[in-house]
Amino acid sequence: MFKGSSLRLTELGEGLAELCFDRPGESLNKFDRRTVAELQQAADLLAAHAGLRGVLVSSAKDNFIVGADIFEFSALFSATPAHVEIENARQAAAFTAFSDLPVPTVVAINGMAFGGGFEMALACDHRFIADTATIGLPEVTLGIVPAYGGSVRLPRVASCATALNWVVSGTPRKASHALVDGAVDAVLPADRLRDGALAWLRQAAAGEHTWQDRRQRTRGPVVLDAAAMEQAQALAARTAKHFPAAAAFVEFMANTAALDAKAAAAEEAKLFARLATTPTAASLVRLFTNDQFLKKKGKGYVKAARPLKLAAVLGAGIMGGGIAYTSAVRGTPVLMKDITDAALLLGMGEADKLLAKQVDGGRMSADKAAAVRASIQPQLDFTGFDGVDVVVEAIVENLAIKKKVLAELEGLVRSDAVIASNTSSLSIGEMASALQRPQNFVGMHFFNPVPLMPLVEVICGERTDPVAAATVAGYALAMGKTPVVVKDCPGFLVNRCITPYSIGFLRLLHDGADFRQVDAVMESFGWPMGPAYLDDVIGMDTLAHVLDVIAGGYGSRMVPDFPTAVHLLAQHKQLGQKSGSGFYRYENDTKGRPRKLDNPDTASLIATVQPFGPRTFSETEVIDRLMLPMVLEAARCLDEQVVESAVEVDMGMVLGIGFPRHLGGPLHWADQIGLPEIVRRCEALSGLSPIYRVSDPFRKRAVAGEKFHA
Ligand code: NAD
User: To test ligand 1's pocket by mutation, which of 313, 314, 318 has the most ligand atoms within 8 angstroms of CB?
Assistant: First the structure.
């Protein structure tokens, strides 16, 4: 009947037709503008088809439809709200045209149906789903709400509570869960799905189902569920300041429940236009496309990587233990060597705790946990190191010791084995100078805690072979991490960019700020923890050392020219969480987790490095003083090709240190503010410290009206 480039219409006989989504040459179906236009064409053809008695909707791929084409969002979202509203209403009309066909419609959801994919299913009269399929409405994770009619149809098809739960959480659901929630009508084994849906369609066409009554009901108002509304409101309110979509959906439900579906659809388009044009949506869409870019790069690394069957870790401490556990749990067996039994016991104890948590939470079977544990081999000697493909060194952060240990290690592994160091501050080039095969040496910088933190910096020294770097990047991917390849420089990417932020904070304290106020401002700005709290978690001794090494590496541009609170606290052995006291005081709660408490003595101690006494700063000044130097350093990293792209700078900061997601990364944030404005604000602070000095390339970009991201 019709063959488009994303879907086709076929007559099945007996007046039945099949609308099958099938993008040739691609593994997935998605809704881009072309597909929506073809849906409209198909609906028009079906409406004009005289003998039509029913329509089956299906997919020829393993999945149903994975959602809208998010790559099209960036351009659409940068238009005016009025334009977005018109464009959205036009696209949603194609779904409505299909749902208004005068015959019964049924969908066979054979695999993933997310966002627009599930909205297509909601535009049908009856939904069959394969027992293996997952469905959901993840739009809030992009800062928007479903707007192909899904925000209107789900509460009318299922219930107010289901719509609230599904849209506000944005999480995918299994078929069985969808059935319980009323989002689908029947679950079938995948091999019986199409036949089941067709059988229903034949019966409906023969008048055996009251599909018209149900259709009528879904065109009317929604019964509001007060308890579900209250619960959703409370949940959405927690993140509403920076992520407004979920709260806006709850409000939309309250405002449109009494309306019929047509009037509610007009409101849906308005809400979508309002949310899509927020900076949050722009940032979240940017993060999505960034992630896709990194995934593509990751495939390249895997292709170039050497085979990796067995790994080893030197050091069973905080980092080594975490790396060994993560390697094992993701399927790469690992030898874990330390120099003391006590350290090995600690490392294995940590793995045991993490595995027990998985088993207790029902996420892993006891047998699997035992197998994972058995794939970590604790040892005091180098037995078996001649068989490993990669060794990750995670011993003490001391250059002389690392060089000695690495040189010894090199003599015990195969000549093609890759040796990686998890150093956080030492030069990869300098360590490589102790080796016979520097081409096989690379940095592999994990973040603490290893099982949770998604980023791994892969650091290439001058002599590192790209294949060695790709092998380590491939290992990071196998561990479920995102690798970013970084050039060897003090602090690499993430710690380099966070250092001027830290110095901005310390300078603010020196100028009289209250660290509790600074923490409150930065947490409200979107950081998971304020800078003083972060310092406590890292530890003052580590931080003082890292500050000296990294800042020292950039000379007077970064070295603080004033006594810092971090060095002061380190001298007074107020090391942070690990000593029970830093900026704050810590007591363990009943579960053994450190609870942050006020530390009455710290303010008077800090006062000794505040020569001008206490002073109050505006929120804007606190934010500018910390954030701007980070932005400038991030730009320098790009200009010096520390990483290849602005995407990698931003993703490094989001994944490595929790840069607020709603801002999209330091360079995306700078683009949003505008580079001339960043220059103006930096100039206002430039008398305070060289960290506020704008580099020439940054200034040139600002003058030329350029952005970091195209
Ligand atoms: P840690 O003190 O917890 O562990 C170091 C372990 O190495 C100890 O168990 C020690 O016994 C062992 N060790 C020392 N010499 C050894 C040798 N010759 N052979 C085998 N084992 C030896 O330290 P950590 O925090 O795990 O840090 C390890 C490395 O990771 C350092 O280079 C550090 O800079 C880096 N790093 C740490 C963090 C962090 O937050 N802790 C983050 C990123 C990187």
Answer: 318
